[in-house]
Amino acid sequence: MAGFEENEISLKANGGTELIKRRLGGLLDPTLLDNFQIISSRIRELNPEKIRVMWSHDLPEDPESEKIKHKAYRDKFHKFVFVSNWQYNRYQLFSGLPYDTTSIIIEHGIVPSPASCLNKPNDKIRLVYTSTPQRGLELLVPVFKRLAEKYPNIHLDVFSSFKIYGFDEADKRYEPLYEECRNHPQITYHGFTPNDELRAHVDKCHIFAYPSIWMETACIALMEAMSAGLVCVHPNFGALADTSGGLNMMYHGNFNDRNSHANILYSYLEGAIELVKSNKSAELVGYAKFYADNRFHINRAMQQWENLLKTLLNDYPTIESRFIAEEKFVYRTT
């Protein structure tokens, strides 16, 4: 794909990073992209003839991000792009990244769900989980099972598998949890589902149940759930507060005490169920959809990328101009 670099991991993956990359690659002018090497977090080889853009999706603590601590390595790039303000601030604190014009924030872009998704029947209230299992599924399943004892008309759809990243072997650890889902009459385990099919299903759901214990730099699943008119229940962990704009049923979790976190989650999910049950969720989800559709629209992200690339091409129009004088970089782990 012109401009957006692939590596041995991304070639097999269909996660959020890859979806955004492929969407943008299909929208941006390929002759413009040909001037760039845009690297999504995992740096392999650098092309001295291209304008080099580091597009970070990871945390600064990630081993792949270790080199960014070193100015001599940062100087190999013409621009750093981050996916949220929360993420960029963390790189400033953890990696010593300067607050200057070498960095920019361009948030993820989604294709908004149709307005018709706001008209959902509530004879059966559908909850949905749409992320890999280590992000909170182990916490959600027992809480949902308790709620199901009280609410016979609720159902949980679980779209969760490491197959989305091509890591089939990683699913083995979670197979007992998947089987627990399969065996419950009010839970449907779907595994990995292509994004278009997944979103068509999410549009029909009522509650996005996401007790995330995984520190995310941004959350496309949350953006899409807000756009689909779901009551979104999640903690204020990582970039989730940044992504949500504080509009959802967001809670302060307790990651030091699993039982405490489970009790908090139970309370908030029950509140969301009662909200949907009483037909009082329209104002909340309507405004959240308007917010997500405007803030995260794919066309907005595309325009920001196009503006950035055109500016960089104007600054570095020739191969000669893209050479960056650098001190010798020596990578040390200590």
How would you characterize the overall build of this protein?
The protein folds into 2 domains: 126 residues; 179 residues, Rossmann fold, CATH 3.40.50. Helices cover 38% and strands 13% of the residues. The strands form 2 sheets. The chain has a 6-stranded parallel β-sheet with strand order 7-6-5-8-9-10, with helices on both faces. Strands 1-2-3-4 form a 4-stranded parallel β-sheet.
Brief digest:
The protein is of the alpha/beta class and 334 residues long.
Largest sheet: 6 strands, parallel
Oligomer: single chain
Q: How confident overall, as mean pLDDT?
A: 91
**Overall outline:** elongated
Q: By CATH's scheme, which homologous superfamily of the largest domain applies?
A: Glycogen Phosphorylase B
CATH uppermost class of the largest domain: Alpha Beta
* Unreliable residue stretches: 327-334
- CATH topology-level name of the largest domain: Rossmann fold
Number of H/I helices: 12
